[in-house]
Amino acid sequence: MSYVMVQMFMSDDDIMVAGEFQAVVLAAGHGSRMTEVTAGRPKCLLPIANMPMIWYPLRMLEREGFQDAIVIVADNTKSEIQAALEKCNLSIRLDYAALPPGKEDWGTADSLQFINEKIKSDVVVVSSDFITDASLYPALELFRKNEAAVTMFFLKPAEVSAGDSLPTPGPKTKHKPERDLVGINADTSRLVLLASVSDFDETLPLSRGLLRKHPHLQLYSRLLDSHVYILRKWVCEFLVQERSLGTLKGELLPYIVRKQSSKPTQKVEDASTIRGNTKNDIFQFAKESTLVSKVLPISLSNDHWGDMKGTFQDDKIRCYAHIVEGTSFGMRVNTLQAYASINREILQIWEKVTGGNVLVRLHPGAEVKSTQVDDSTLVGEGTLLNEKTSFKSSTIGASCTVMSRTRISNCVIMNNVKVNEGCVLTNCILCDGVEVGANTELKDCLVGAKHTVGAGDKHNQEFLADEDVLMEI
């Protein structure tokens, strides 16, 4: 009741930024599924339309009204990430939390444990590789009104772009996306099942008790998990004690979803005794606010029928799922295929995913002598495009040089790349510091950082890299 009264006098953005939620952006991952392009730079700084990948979720948070965010980074990449974002004109204030040296492989839950002292309220966890035009507000509203422990943010397959018909640069590989089994109560949006498809052979066991409790259960196997998780503060406190849960998606969330159907072993009257009791019992942490604990027993509201149980069926732990409806765009850029696809599509969805941010097509610091640069090509700062060159649907990064009699189409060229004269590049990704020799033809190729492609070479659907990079991969 009090929430409704407050909402009457506050805008949606005011509610979000009034200290109710803290944003946490996970940016310490090194891109284990796309090491071909992350050998030379942090994954979160991979360029998309000449902007670092992490800029997109930060821009989304700005759009939703967040004024501050904690960015979790690896210790050895903090200065590079900070320097890159300082050039992006973001208004959101960023607090960088660097993981200890040697802990770059920590799981996402481990990272959240590490910043526990910074967490003062409920948390919105966002992956640095998620790009969307969808609003977080419906998920936050679902979280609020149900006093949820966790709310997950999904998109339906129809909203997940399949990319275009061009192949992914590099050798042919079979892309087998991870698939989750997600069970959601169609009436209440309660999330009652979360597991990987690979955990089951041919049958999925569902208990009678679960089906009685949630008779309108819908099962999904092709939803996109955005890795946007809204967590109650006590969930983060529980994580500090339960060190065995190293990842959010693979361990913590399935654990909490399962715990919904359990009951507390004992009632804890004094919250100050939590750490002295059975410290790894999640129910010791799942404490409702004073207002909610007084309102629920006398509330006439109910989310189910067929029994005399109280609101939320007397469950102390509740998980929910929001599925984005409509034509919203959403993609996790966590594979090479996704990275190639988003670079082809970003100009078509730019206004939607950035909230109308100005697109710099030709940087004022670039020198463009070519007369054949189409409207779907972007050129970065300090880049020289010589005369008698042609560019179509490509992104050229900063401090690059392209010599005469060269044609480039459907390519992503990162920073400090030199393409000598007489080259033809089609549907390629060239990482930082690459040099392409004269009269070279590359089609559907991926070239690793600082590699030199020999003059006159012809390559098709290959990954070209120095031996040390190949050994690392």
TrEMBL record:
Protein name listed in UniProt: Translation initiation factor eIF2B subunit gamma
Superkingdom of the source species: Eukaryota
GO MF assignments: guanyl-nucleotide exchange factor activity; translation initiation factor activity
One family name in Pfam for this protein: NTP_transferase
GO cellular component, one term: eukaryotic translation initiation factor 2B complex
Keywords, sorted A to Z: Cytoplasm, Initiation factor, Protein biosynthesis
Gene: LOC117645062
Domain called Nucleotidyl transferase: residue spans: 23-154
UniProt entry tagged with the keyword Protein biosynthesis: yes
Family annotation (InterPro entries): eIF2B_gamma, LbH_EIF2B3/5, NTP_transferase_dom, Nucleotide-diphossugar_trans
GO terms of biological process kind: cytoplasmic translational initiation
Species: Thrips palmi (Melon thrips)
